[in-house]
Design goal:
about 475 residues; two-stranded antiparallel ribbon; mainly alpha; about 60% helix; about 0% strand
Length: about 475
């Protein structure tokens, strides 16, 4: 007697179970092979970078310690004074003064001259004074004295700040006291820096519009020197803060140029100081450091799961947080390869920029297929930070444009009109004609009249945003 065949549903169930086992086995084998090959690729990438002399952890970029009496940042101005427990603060530090608010009476007085004035989401005195300084050029000649008086009133409580900063700058070196062995994903490592920049800029505007261009020049130079204290700070936040302060100084110089308020000697000093600024090496250093911080984070999570893991998990999409340990062991090495190679691509482009310009094709990160799954951190890193190359390139172009404009104004002061072309500035006012950072070509210039000109970057048209109408 032949045995009866099992029911159809049993045969189907057996087939489904067998197929499931086969699929799971194949997936497990595939993922194991992927993990093995990406680990090998990471070892290869790491060896290549180390052979080139690259540093792959953040702690390696920590600036060497310097004595407090030589350190610009070794002062209580960079942190609020802490009174004894249960006791109110007896003496305000300059940092606390910078956080003081504009009073209702002061705001009412400002709106008499500037009816639509708003502190742009902040009523802090330093930022309000900075905004007021920016708008002085909008006033008619008749109203400007009132505007300058109001600005002086706002700045009166901040009077100790410029001399304090000048004394700190005399120390000659700078290193912010920061522990590079930690993983501070959430931090504000330079408290008060923005506010002090706003304060110095506002004092410079007040001096410029009351006719004291010499004091305005000294304050602008102090502002640029203060920005240089961040030049060797390896954090990207520091470099972004630096370009913000440089931009404040550059806008101040431009205002003085448009108002014809600078003398030849003052312009020469401002021009020479601006010419010494190069933002791209600092950005290359910052990208290397951010890469080191990411590598350090991966290592910390792999070796000692702790709070570091929680900080890192917060960067993941919510759907992946529960599967984070699995993700890290399956795809973490591929993620690190993409991040490390992508950063090196950016760094190489930045270091080649003085000779070749910044071609976006050399540094742009293009996500690979399926990288939304296998390269979550690399994609997030370049989405948030990759665009900083373009931002810094624009700022460097603006700085060089301002240098040319200073040279043009010096020529006008001597000859009574602007030159017919930029070649007339060389070599008396410029050693060479500066080039646009991105396309690496000289600036374009057109004299519209003896008293007006247009200056624009090589990559733009005469109607573009970067033109300089004087």
């Amino acid at each position: 007697m032949t045995p009866s065949r099992p029911p159809l549903w049993k045969r189907f169930l057996r087939f489904a179970v067998f197929s499931g086992i086969v699929v799971v086995t194949l997936v497990a084998l595939g993922l194991s092979w992927f993990s093995f090959t990406t680990r090998r690729e990471w070892a290869k990438t790491k060896a290549e970078l180390l052979t080139r002399g690259e540093k792959l952890s953040m702690v390696e970029f920590a600036p060497p310690p310097i004595p407090d009496d030589q350190n610009f940042f070794a002062d209580s101005i960079w942190r609020p004074a802490e009174p004894p427990p249960g006791q109110p603060a007896i003496k305000e530090t300059p940092f606390q003064l910078l956080d003081s608010l504009v009073t209702a009476d002061e705001l009412a007085a400002i709106r008499v001259v500037f009816p639509n004035f708003q502190p742009s989401g902040s009523s802090a005195r330093a930022y309000a004074a900075y905004q007021l300084g920016l708008r002085l050029s909008e006033l008619s000649p008749k109203m400007r004295p009132a505007g300058v008086t109001l600005l002086g009133r706002l700045l009166a409580p901040l009077a100790p700040v410029p001399s304090k900063i000048e004394s700190l700058l005399a120390r000659g070196d700078a290193r912010f006291p920061f522990d590079y062995a930690t993983l501070p994903w959430k931090m504000n490592p330079y408290p008060g820096f923005h506010e002090i920049g706003y304060t110095l800029t506002a004092f410079a505007y007040a001096a410029l519009f009351r006719g004291d261009s010499a004091t305005a020049t000294l304050l602008t130079l102090d502002l640029l020197r203060m920005s240089d204290t961040l030049a060797r700070e390896p954090l990207l936040y520091a470099q972004m803060l630096r370009i913000s302060v440089v931009a404040q100084a550059r806008t101040l110089v431009q205002t003085g140029l448009e108002e014809h308020r600078w003398s030849d000697a003052e312009l020469a000093s401002l021009q020479n100081t601006l010419a010494q600024i190069d933002l791209l090496p600092g950005l290359a250093l910052a990208y290397r450091t951010e890469r080191g911080r990411s590598n350090q984070a991966f290592e910390a999570v792999l070796l000692r799961p702790s709070k570091d893991r929680a900080d890192l998990v917060e960067q993941l999409p919510s759907g992946l947080r529960q599967a984070f340990p699995i993700y890290l062991h399956l795809f973490g090495f591929d993620d690190r390869v993409a991040l490390n190679r992508g950063v090196q691509k950016i760094v190489d482009a930045l270091e080649a920029a003085p000779l070749n310009g910044l071609d976006p094709r050399r540094y742009r990160y293009v996500p690979a297929p399926l990288s939304q799954v296998t390269r979550v951190f690399a994609n997030n890193f370049f989405y948030l930070l990759g665009g900083q190359v373009d931002v810094f390139a624009v700022h460097m172009t603006d700085i060089r444009q301002t240098i040319v404009a200073c040279a043009l104004e010096r020529y006008r002061l001597r000859y009574g009109s602007y030159p017919g072309n930029l070649a007339e500035l060389v070599p008396t006012y410029l050693p060479t004609i500066p080039r646009d950072v991105l396309v690496h070509e000289p600036f374009h210039y057109r004299r519209l009249s003896p008293e007006t000109f247009r200056l624009w970057a090589a990559g733009d048209s005469p109607e573009a945003d970067l033109i300089w109408p004087n």
